[in-house]
């Protein structure tokens, strides 16, 4: 099953001062075992653009669609047997301690 893992900032990071997991090692291990299909860091929200159509009119604005202290920083596309495996993969990601990780299964659309 495929999961999109959103890597997000958090206003309440872990206060544990022990060694943090290494992101390069996490990426390398999960790429090698086929659980990470793709991933990237996103540019800051200061360079984002929001696009909407309302009553047939195109509305384009600078910045994120909401005002928030917590933002999506990046993503990883995972291939895991089930949610339990996806949770274990997320648990080992460095941002599980400094931010938060949101897992969402991908839905196969008909057609």
UniProtKB/TrEMBL annotation:
<dbReference type="InterPro" id="IPR005545">
    <property type="entry name" value="YCII"/>
</dbReference>
<feature type="domain" description="YCII-related">
    <location>
        <begin position="30"/>
        <end position="108"/>
    </location>
</feature>
<protein>
    <submittedName>
        <fullName>YciI family protein</fullName>
    </submittedName>
</protein>
<dbReference type="InterPro" id="IPR011008">
    <property type="entry name" value="Dimeric_a/b-barrel"/>
</dbReference>
<dbReference type="Pfam" id="PF03795">
    <property type="entry name" value="YCII"/>
</dbReference>
<comment type="similarity">
    <text>Belongs to the YciI family.</text>
</comment>
């Amino acid at each position: 099953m495929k999961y999109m893992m959103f890597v997000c900032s958090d206003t309440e990071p872990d206060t544990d001062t022990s060694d943090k997991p290494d992101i390069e090692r996490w990426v390398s291990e999960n790429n090698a075992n086929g659980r990470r299909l793709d991933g990237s860091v996103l540019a800051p929200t200061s360079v984002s653009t929001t696009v909407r159509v309302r009553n047939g009119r195109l509305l384009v604005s600078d910045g994120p669609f909401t005002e928030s202290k917590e933002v999506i920083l990046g993503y990883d596309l995972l291939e895991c047997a089930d949610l339990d495996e996806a949770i274990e993969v997320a648990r080992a990601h460095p941002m599980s301690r400094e931010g938060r990780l949101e897992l969402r299964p991908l839905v196969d659309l008909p057609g």
